[in-house]
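Support case: iron/sulfur cluster complex. Customer-provided input:
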Amino acid sequence: MTAIRNNWTKEEILDIYNTPLLELVFRAASVHRAHNPTGEVQVSSLLSIKTGGCPEDCGYCPQAARYHTGVDVHKLLPLDEVMQAADNAKSGGASRMCLGAAWREVRDNRDFDRVLDMVKGITSKGMEVCCTLGMLTEEQAKKLADAGLYAYNHNLDSSAEFYETIITTRTYDDRLKTIEHVRNSGITVCSGGIIGMGETTDDRIGMLLTLANMPKHPDSVPINALVPVEGTPMEDRPPVPVWDMIRMIAVTRIVMPETVVRLSAGRLEMSMEAQALCFMAGANSIFAGDKLLTTPNPEFNQDMDMFRILGLSPREAFKNKKTQPAKEHAMEHVNAP
Ligand code: SAM
Ligand code: DTB
Ligand code: SF4
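Agent response - structure generated as follows:
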């Protein structure tokens, strides 16, 4: 078994990245098998609880108010609608529900209270809940932890250098600070990025270096292929070669052996064979369901067919935690049915 390291150098990661592809996949598969149960894939369901109208200028994002992308803008969903979506996701086999909001940051208001109720309610159904709500203070992270939140997603997206060329309304340091607040509150960290935005190999390595050298590796690392959306500054970006996705996943697996590596956005453009190579290279999570936040994703049944063909099975909830949060405790605080 390879050691878990937090002292990687840029040169080491670059060397791994430049390994001939099949050699790289073999190495990543070996690390994966030594550290994780094989054939097990964590299935997350994604729900946009507040869509569009975001004040930020993230160059890839269809939800930024300043780009005209035609997304169906809506305010925070009611609690019962979110509970219904969680029931549907659970009966489809998802062990994690990820709630996304097009917010720059969380504000201490009624909307946040409603999100806390969503977290309590879904946790009490025996599902892991992940939120991605933008920047958080340490106090807000603690409130989410008290509500039972399992994970918080906050992506670094790319290297610090490339980040400032795609987003000007916040800094890389802001991102790192929120991640630290999440880690300090005891919520597991989910942080990864996007490839295909025009970044260099060095930028990809820079992002992996930052993630792999954190005091503790993120519990999960989503690797997204850019979904180019009309109206965003990245609408004309050429598709990411699948080989780059496979390579990126393999390197992520090798430098963070026990992290859950999520093959995230971009699967609609990938064949089953390409996805199989990603699983071989250590990907052990996907977003399932026919919609990501605003863009399409493969049909649920199509993914279940893929699982059957490849001999994969969905991972049960709370497998990495000793105990599941007490249902009664989580339910005590839910104010709605
Ligand atoms: N507003 C919050 C934030 O930015 O942290 C949460 C929602 S935001 C949509 C979550 C993540 O989705 C982003 O950090 C980015 O990595 C990813 N994302 C957004 N648009 C994307 C696109 N077109 N293709 C791939 N990933 C995308
Ligand atoms: C992540 O890394 N990818 C998901 C999730 N975290 C929130 C989001 C992908 C969004 C793709 C574009 C869209 O559907 O709007
Ligand atoms: Fe807003 Fe998040 Fe999209 Fe950036 S990525 S525009 S912060 S929703």
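DSSP finds twelve helices and ten strands in the chain.

Case will auto-close in a few days if no follow-up is received.
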